[in-house]
Amino acid sequence: MKFTEKVTQEWNKLKLMSGKDRVWYIASYYKFHIGVICIVLFLLYSAAGVLYHSTFTTALHVIYVNSFSDQAVDLSVVDEDFPAWLGLGKKDLVTAELSYIYYGEQATEYSIANLQKIVALISARELDVLICDTENMEHYGESGAFLDLSELLDEELVSRISDRFWTCTNPDGNEYVCAVDISGTDFVMRSGLTQEPPLLGIITNSQHVDNAVSLIRYIFDERETQ
To answer: What is the DSSP code string of 158-188?
Structure first.
């Protein structure tokens, strides 16, 4: 029997059945076919999603460390407002996330996992900026994890914010400007950051240094609240 004839025969058979019988018949005799179709559609949908997201590029990855507050940190200031200010496209992703890290007796499995995650992101060159407390800035700064802002930023910006520079000692024993204190800015107030002070450092092997510098300019081009 030809395929078209079989299809016609099955269609005619279904038309003669009641609704209940029709559902039972299809479920009994075509469940395998339906399952295969569902799997194929799922795979096509997944492949389309992967293909679509492959067209996105990371413009900046920021992690806030140890901002403790009764209210959640507003990540949209970085991952929505900043990209709009910089004029990035919809497929240029700026990602912000939270992390909590303790040392010594306060260290927990969760804290250790966060510490390892940041180390892994730095090793993979997938992290650009840390905004953290003094303890974590010292921890990462003394390992040479940050670029020297006094050498990276242009003279105009340095002249405006040099009084906010924060220094660390690198593994060679030399002091360098590993961070800038961003306390008292609109950015900190709107984000709800509570570190005292919140310190911003640019990771030494960042692949998006220009955008990281633009984030500093964005923060200090805004009105300071104090």
So the answer is: HHHHGGGEEEEE-TTS-EEEEEEE-TTBHHH
